[in-house]
Request: fold
Amino acid sequence: MSTNKNKLLVAGNWKMNNSLEEAVSLSKDITGYIHENPEILQKADFLICPSHVHLAWVNTVIADTPVMLGGQDCSQDSNGAHTGDVSAEMLSDLGCGMVILGHSERRQDHKEQDALIVEKVIKAHEQGIKTVICVGETLEQRESGKAFDVVLAQLEGSIPVGAKAEDVVVAYEPVWAIGTGKVASPEDVEAIHNVIADYLKEKLDNGDAIRILYGGSVKPDNAGDLSRIDHVHGFLVGGASLKAGSFVGIAQAIEE
Ligand code: PGA
Reply:
């Protein structure tokens, strides 16, 4: 995958949505649009992350296109007696070059904590899968002035020591902005992305090459303004990634 930060990464997190038929047709619509409008690839790289059970099918649609395939989670274990889990190797077999880890919905619904997330990140990297590591504060944490501390602690806890910068993408997603239609203000996004960028630069060799995505109610309408903010290198998109028009519309809105 390109780590060219001049291009933004537009990543679609489909979460637990779409029938198989919808997933296949959405992938066809996205790749079809990019095929007909190849100039959009000068602005953005594209990643889509369907449900695990749809990966193989979606892969048949996007395998020979510029759109990358990713998982939404993987196990911290390599294989064995772990009912219901999916290993990084399985994701790799299905064509995934990336995986989202530590999403706030996994942190909330499955009580995932940094100590577990870092193990998952290590497993993915061992399989040559790059990781989109998600961090972000809750509304309560923001209102009590703890947003920076929370995000820095999550970065410290979930990025393995010695990780290669080229394997890592960070997604800053304030929990209160996910699926709510509320977007963090440009000033807040800029301030926290700056803090994340400084941390990555100091912590990892070549850490300033790491892309930092913003996530939380990103749409074509707000992507242009967000894309102008320093240290915003792309978007992790939920709701608006479920329609080809709004997903590619986000890339179209990016200001060069
Ligand atoms: P949203 O989700 O775009 O629907 O707010 C973003 C995410 O959870 O990654």
Q: What stands out?
A: The beta strands are 8-13, 44-49, 68-71, 98-101, 130-135, 168-172, 211-215, 234-237. The pocket of 2-phosphoglycolic acid is lined by residues 13, 173, 178-179, 215-218, 236-240 (CB under 6 Å).
